[in-house]
Structure formats: C-alpha cells, structure tokens
Specification:
This protein is of the alpha/beta class. It contains 12 helices and 13 strands. It has a single domain, classed as NAD(P)-binding Rossmann-like Domain (Rossmann fold, 3-Layer(aba) Sandwich). Helix content is 42%, strand content 17%. The strands form 4 sheets. A 7-stranded parallel beta sheet has the order 3-2-1-4-5-6-11, with helices on both faces. It has a two-stranded parallel ribbon with strand order 7-10. The site of nicotinamide-adenine-dinucleotide has 30 residues, from helix 1, helix 4 and strand 5.
Length: 339
C-alpha cells in the first residue's frame, strides 16, 4: 500500500507519519509538505532513514505539481492533513486559508479521481460545528450537528469537507472525513496554547490568556487521533464522517494552571489579554460513532497525557528552541540542498 500523507511535516501529520512508518513497514509512506512556517522536517528525524519513508516538497494547491506526483507515484490512499491551521492567522490573512484549505483539497480530490484511489481521507476539525454555550454541559457535537462556522479558518475547513462529500456523491470517490477536537502532544508548534505556555513558563515570561480564560476545549492526545485515522482509513465506511474526541474538556485557564503547577511556576505569570474576535466558547465532541462502529477507544486521559507532554518538551528542548530561534527552517537545506 502506498500512502501520500500531506502536511506530514506539521504537528499531527508528523505524528501520523511516525505512527504509520513504524507500524506498517510494508507500506510506502510519502510525506508531501510545502514546508510553510509550520512545517518542520526536524520532526521527521526519527524516520527519515527508514526505507518505507520518503519526503517530497510541494504545494497541494499546485495542480501541475500534484498531478505530476500522482502520475509518478500512483498512490492507493491519500490522507490530507496539509492546511493553514492557526485561527489567529486566518483573521489577518483569510485568503491563504482559502487557497490551501479549499483549493488544495479540491486539487487533491481531482488528482484522486483522475488517477483512481482506494481511499481519500480528509482530516477536519470540530470547529466546523461552531461552538456550544458554556452553560449547557449536556450538549455535544455529533456527526449530525449542522455546520455553523465562526472563523475564516473553520469556514475554509467546512468548505473543504463539503467538497469532499460532494466528490463522493457526484463522482463516487471513496472518501472519509474525521473531525477532531484540539490535539496536544509531542511536536506541537509553539504558537499553539499548550507548547506556548510550556515554553514561556519555563522562561518565566508572561503567559497570554484570551479574555477570562473560560473558553472550553476538548483535548485529544495526538496518538489517540493517529490511531483513529489509522482505523478509519482501513475500516471506515466510504462517505462517512467520524468525530474524534477524548471527553477531556478543560477551560483554557485550567490548562494553563495545570502546566504551571507541573513546572512549579507561579500563577502571577498569567496575563489576560483582549479576547480573540468571534472566539468560540466551548467545543465538546461525542465520539460514540467511532467507538461503536470501529471500536476506537482513547488511551490517554488529559491528566496523564499533559504530564507526559510536558516531560516531552523538557526532554526535547532543542526541537522547540530551534523553532523559536528559526533554525528549523535551515533543516531542509542541510538535508536536501538549498531551495
Ligand atoms: P500544522 O499547522 O502543524 O501543520 C500543517 C502542515 O501543512 C505544515 O507542515 C505545513 O507546512 C503544511 N502545509 C501548509 N500549506 C501547505 C500546502 N499548500 N501544501 C502542502 N503542505 C502545506 O497543522 P496541524 O495542527 O498538524 O493540523 C493538521 C490538520 O488537522 C489540519 O488540517 C487541521 O485543520 C486539522 N486539525 C488540527 C487540530 C489541532 O488541534 N492541531 C484540531 C482539529 C483539526
């Protein structure tokens, strides 16, 4: 089996490449990534010499390039992680989100239907459902929840999902979609909440928290997410959407305080900053369909997962310090020659 994993130099894609390369030595895993600011080949160091792994630099929205790659590789499966993924950036530059997240997806879908494919899997987000009120803990997102986006990021992801489903209905393309909650774990780019707080707390810098810190996120360990996608591409039903979440709801403030406590740093580092425009209040996933139909069960609860994650950042300071000082961007040149 030959699998193109797009966005495999990013956080979740990188973890997924590790998972697949290690678990399936007989599969060929091709990591296609543009290496934007969020792409970091240092994440792939542990697998880069494995015979079943290959890296290709390229843009999923570049039709000529994508079709050329499919012509050459004839993949069996495509798993699309590549995206502009940061909500704050989508507020300042929505167009790049349309280009990569929507047009990149339709380009891949067109290549899949031209060259034939056993499975196209789209990695989506619970943010396509919008948000839930803080005072209704009984409500959860199911696969039937209507799409109701808040940010340019989530709008671009919802649009991509609709194209994926339309390609199944119109062209019979064998697709699946997973919609997950917030991931955490190793190799998370330090602009996102958990690694940002860990790295700044270690340096005893101010810790920015939006608004009052009461927004609730449903944290999913990235390894549990990778297991879910592995299951879906092998056993998921064509045309289906699967929600992935670990029932680990925490307010942002709880997350920050947990990290401070684990690192033995004072809460006085917390600095409340002006809230993000349109900030979603609560995300909470109901993963029952994935659990009952495919037998998925998360291995991590947040309290153990966050402690292991903090330890990973302590043990791998070079990885995130290279990002903060920009050195990670030279890794491609060192490995593959200058761009
Ligand atoms: P990330 O920003 O860490 O990584 C994205 C990767 O995509 C980077 O390596 C980047 O170089 C690459 N990329 C960007 N534009 C590209 C292009 N045009 N062509 C090829 N590669 C390109 O993102 P992530 O956090 O790993 O998220 C992966 C996927 O999961 C995204 O689709 C995101 O929407 C989704 N998701 C993430 C979370 C989360 O908590 N991180 C939650 C729900 C859904």
């Amino acid at each position: 089996m030959k699998i193109i994993v797009t966005g495999g130099a990013g956080f979740i894609g990188g973890n997924f490449v590790h998972h697949m390369v290690d678990k399936y030595p007989d599969y060929q895993i091709i990591n296609l990534d543009l290496l934007t600011y969020a792409g970091n080949l240092e994440t792939l160091k542990p697998v880069e010499d494995k015979p079943n792994y290959k890296f290709v630099k390229g843009d999923i929205a570049d039709r000529e390039f994508v079709f050329g790659l499919f012509e050459e590789e004839k993949p069996d499966v495509v798993v699309n992680f590549a995206a502009e993924s940061h909500v704050d950036r989508s507020i300042t530059d929505p167009e790049s989100f349309v280009r990569t997240n929507v047009m990149g997806t339709t380009t891949l879908l067109d290549a899949c239907r031209t060259y034939g494919i056993k499975r196209y899997h789209q990695v989506s987000t619970d943010e396509v459902y919008g948000d839930l009120p803080l005072d209704r803990p009984d409500l959860f997102f199911t696969e039937e929840t209507p799409l109701h986006t808040s940010s340019p990021y989530s709008s671009s992801k919802a649009s991509a999902d609709l194209f994926v489903l339309a390609y199944q209905r119109t062209f019979g393309l064998p697709v699946t979609i997973s919609r997950c909650s917030n991931n955490y774990g190793p190799y998370h780019f330090p602009e996102k909440l958990i690694p940002l707080i860990i790295s700044r707390a270690l340096a005893e810098e101010e810790l920015p928290v939006y608004g009052t810190g009461e927004n609730v996120r449903d944290w999913l360990h990235v390894s549990d997410h990778c297991e879910a996608i592995d299951l879906i591409i092998h056993k998921g039903k064509e045309g289906e959407v699967y929600n992935v979440g670990g029932h680990n709801e925490r307010t942002n403030l709880e997350v920050v305080k947990t990290i401070l406590e684990a690192l033995d740093k004072p809460e006085s580092l917390i600095k409340y900053v002006k809230d993000r425009p349109g900030h979603d209040r609560r995300y909470a996933i109901d993963p029952e369909k994935l659990e009952t139909e495919l037998g998925w069960k998360p291995k991590y609860n947040f309290d153990t997962g966050i402690r292991q994650t903090i330890q990973w950042y302590l043990d791998n300071e070079d990885w995130w310090k290279h990002i903060i000082n920009g050195e990670y961007q030279n890794y491609f040149d060192n490995m593959y020659g200058s761009r």
